[in-house]
Amino acid sequence: MRSGHELTKKIPLAAFSGSLIDYPLREAMEITSELGFDGIEIACRSPHLGLDTPLEEVKELGEYAAELGLRIPALAGYTGHFSTLNDEECEAALEEFHKLLRIAEVLSVPCIRVFPGGPNAFLAENQHYERAAHYLRKCITEAEESRVQLLIEIHNQTLVEDADSALRLLELTGGTGLGFIHDAGNMYISGVDYGEASVRKLGSHLSHIHIKDEKRIAIEGAEGSFTNRTRHGIEAFMQCRLGEGSVDHRPMLAAVLTSGYAGWITLECAAPFPPKERLAYDLAEIEGQLEAVREVKRSSPIE
Asked: Of 38, 191, 195, 276, which residue is 20 to 30 A from 145 by alpha carbon distance?
């Protein structure tokens, strides 16, 4: 049964710094603050926050974010990909993870993202999941010692393309210490459920949410378009502003609002519009969608 508190509780909103990758990180922070976001999720790669950034500089960036009134709910790491690497490459990826963890400690960030690797979940074999889980267990142990949660994003062309493959990996890593980033845009690309059922399946392991919009198109070529391998073959997609593509986020948002979710939503728009304009557009749109979902829930019979 839902409560009035669940419907009125504000979910904090962050901007993904990668959506402002054309700007230096400090300027991206300033834009994020000016637009009215609660926080910024930082892309941990050049030119924003490379893993070899001196820790004193990292500390100064954290202090600047605080001056702007921004929190940092997560670090978007790009390391991992253990499932298809050899032992030497996996050890190198672990060293990158160590650097990412040190950055999180300096910034007092609660969550960091790593990737399990590929191939697509529908192509993956047991050995891929087992190899990823072996190295992710090492990451989880170190992250827990630093009181940081390890996050895996549900992402097309990886072992984790839907809630079921997320739970498969979770079980192999021991069932604790691992959280998942729900990304309806990625799940739309993969052709899997991204609505209420996906939220219910993830349950307490849903730790973070990414929001972006896309649509299927006939052929790649226009600005903002790209191709991906899916269960249907090689498909073309166009990145869109929120509400202008084919991804209906409202069922997921409705489930999240009544689930007791206590995390963040990060906007990652990469549609072919000026970065500041598209981020402002998506912020207004997600706020409108959240309020519309709340209104429907308020007017519907108590479950």
From this structure: 38
